[in-house]
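Troubleshooting: if your tokenizer reports a length mismatch, compare against these two reference records.
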Amino acid sequence: MVRVAIVGCSNLGRMHAKNYLQLPDAEVVAYCDLLDEPRAIMKKEVFDPAGVEPQAFDDFDRMVKDVQPDAVSLVLPHSLHYPFCMKCLNAGLHVLCEKPLVTETGHAVDLLAKAKETKRILEISFQSVYTANFQYMRDAIRKGDAGDIVYVHGHQYQGWLTNLAKKPEKKWRLKKDISGGGQLYDSGSHLLNGMLWATGLKPARVYAEIDNRTEEVDVCSSLSIRFDNGAVGSIAISGETWQPGMVSRLIITGTKLEFTLHHSGQDLKVYGPTGEVTPEVPENRTPQANFVNAILGKEEPLCPVEYGLTLAKFMDAVYESADQQKPVDIPV
């Protein structure tokens, strides 16, 4: 049995807790948030209906000392991921961290080294890569069924600014010192990580044009990418649109197959020389299920810390390119 604590009781934190409660090999033993209201909502909406009573805390260090969990789910503002991941690893805890893992490359390097030193699992909760469709696509590419990947395109349009204006508790996402970046690091990171995770490619060069509108952070971005295998790609992301919901698409073109799907893993289409292909996909997983099974030695982590390092290198290069208005090479 893996004893888990939830750190951060937002809506996303509540989703983590609900997913753990579905697992026979996991027990939620504690939850922590600085604020009273999120803790109260977590208790009312998640734990009371399930008939369980994990301990509630407003202090992380006290929670770890008193409860001594095996693992922690971190659901915090982006800039807090690095220090809290370090605290957890130093305390001997396995960590499932919400995306993005970090907001600068040096922090990812530190965490990778610390995870190896402590022999603890540090996994990233990018929900899309745990879906059956993303796993099918990745496996097909790895086995060579898609041939050589030659082009990748992604676009994502969301009323991000409009949504944040309606939710004051989420406006930290517009503060660069807390969020690390804007739409690229928020919803856009799902698209970017999905692209890198599924293809296995490493970006070797990027040219970025970014418009912050009137904010501290990026809102609209256009990226041109060269990958390590010679493939090219393009990404277009806008956080200022009047379309309802989110329009998102990732397209991966190989010499034998082409894949297209929503960044969340929904609506997969596969095309080959004879037309549309009907794929046989595995079962959907949750990040929490894979995390617990990885701790127990039953599975490998699907999105380990190494993907956080790849994305951090890419994002640092994106912002450098936008600042300098020129292409930037990325160490592979």
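Reference record two:
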Amino acid sequence: MKLQKILTKALLLLIGPSVFLLTLVAVFYLFFPHNPALDRTFKYDKKYAFISQYPFVMPYFLMYPTEYDSKKEYPLVFALHGGFGKNYGAYQLALLDRRQTYHTFVLIPYGPPMSLWANPETAQVPFYRSHILDGAMKILKDQLETLPIDKNRVYVTGSSNGGRGTFGALKKYPDIFAAGVAVNSDWAPYEYQYFKGKPLWIFFGERDHIFSANRNHKFMRNIGEDGITKYTEYPGVGHKAWKYAYTDDKMWDWLFEQTLSH
């Protein structure tokens, strides 16, 4: 009996801080998600959507095109953030000169802490790191139904965790995305067949310590010279290829030229 009381108290002491920490994380996730635009002059609109996956509510940010006209159709970029909610591609698209050049919607779903957008089928993932791409896709599909979006020009991009999500989105939803840009990331080379014939540009740092340049090299060898899949590797660069990829106007020009009917 005494042992039972001791174990009960120990369990309560253990659960108490855990519940508090989880509650704190949930509050920050729901009410203080990282805004991709640091300058208040081009702040994204923050919204919420109900999804069928934990935590059942997902914040997201949406930017409308400049000179928006509801009678016209516009492309949309589905921008997936990396670790800690950073979204470098969405930030670059919010700069005034790019907004005036590309006139696009930008949609940024915001995943809960420790979650992953996607991974190859055989990847070993801890139980607490759930895949949440499907929940984010529900938000995208809702926007496709309600906003004047050119459904032949829907794109996906992301860095690191968001890069993995880019691969995952192109693999699982090939009929939605016209093209993708994956940065600071890799995918299983043996799954190359899912991406063959789909416009995809991979940007990677030679010295990236989180993902593998060798896996990207094998992936590209398996794809072959199809003229559609592109690969850029920056010598001497670590896990910061986003600094170069997302500031390259040639990449953005290429992306917005792609269509589902390419």
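Descriptive notes for reference record two:
- The longest strand covers residues 149-159.
- The mean pLDDT is 85.
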